[in-house]
Amino acid sequence: MAQLLDGASKLGWVLLTAVLRFVFMFFNNCVAIPSYCLYLLLLQPLRIWDSSTFWHIEGIMFKWLLAMVSSWGWIAGYTVTEWGDDVRPISEEEAMVIVNHQSTGDVCTLMMCLQDKGTVVRKMMWLMDHVFKYTNFGLVSLIHGDFFIRQGKAHRDKQLVYLKDHLDKYYHSRDRKWIVLFPEGGFLRKRRETSQLFAKKNSLPHLTHVTLPRLGATHVILKTLSAQQENGSVGSETGTPNQTGNKRKGLHWVIDVTIAYPKARPMDIQTWIFGYRPPTVTHVHYRMYPIKEVPVEAEALTDWLYQRFVEKEELLAHFYDTGSFPTPEGHKEAVSRQMTLDPVWLCIIQLFAFVSGYIWYSVLQYLYCCLF
After folding, report:
1. pLDDT tens per residue, range 206-219
2. CA 342 to chain centre
3. Which domains are seen in the chain, by residue range?
4. Which residues contact 198 (CB under 8 A, 6 or more apart)?
5. Angle between helices 2-42 and 343-371 (to 10 degrees)
6. Can you tell me the distance from the alpha carbon of 369 to that of 331, in angstroms, rounded to the nearest whole number?
7. Got the DSSP string for 52-70?
């Protein structure tokens, strides 16, 4: 009887905290997203007069919004430990980021672990499934200039054309630095069986913890944002001017990001919202490749990309067996870094969001009374 009461008490506490978290996040979205949109609407004259400053301000507010999402997990005890290469020194250089995709929580994890990487968050572009366009954050991503890609063979060719047009139109003009994509084209649980059948049919590696990546978006990004060299690799000088008239340096790096969850249990967005899972550490491994080492021809790039995901398979297999990533070559041991967020900064951002929401509500209410 005592155990039953103790279990009921714990369940009641989990349900109560889940409800309170949901209510807070609902109001957080209700004040933060409309405020973001209204501030940018107010600043439209600045966009015409000085677009560089406009997108600088937009990027700062975009980073704050992503920090709010990060705080939802942070206060529930969901943290990130980083492994591998330190990407902070190249945060001001242009890079393509390729990430394995297990669940909706992958995006939240990236939102958190990139917060301390200089200006990356406010100058990054995301490639995400078109379904995200219809979420609460879809309007923000649409304004920021992220690209929503539709999956499936029927849409594939058109989507790649749309992606190239999107990059030409928005990547340079808005001074983007990092572009993030999930080459697998879907969640692991949904694509694993299909990927394994394809691998068996074509004598490719059998993968369990990742799936074989798709080439399309990666190929378009490399060809659009980098200059091709005679040896078939890509260079770091695009010759495309940015919004200030200076010559763009182009992509310098490909950053291979591998996300690992304890016991191979992915964190989803519902967990971040309701916080019903005990405090969890998500592990993120980085590996950097100079852009000159990356081939741009389709066949060579396919082999290169497949090799990266074979390496991800090995990394994840080692992590699930030992609880840590393997020691890099030339090192005596694998070193991890605990990623931290400043709670004072998070509180200031949240306070700014709620104050802004109140101010905009008062302004709109006053205008409504004046007009009607």
Report:
1. 999 999 999 989 99
2. 20
3. 16-231+248-326+336-371 (3.40.1130)
4. 204, 212
5. 60
6. 68
7. HHHHHHHHHHHHHHHHHHH
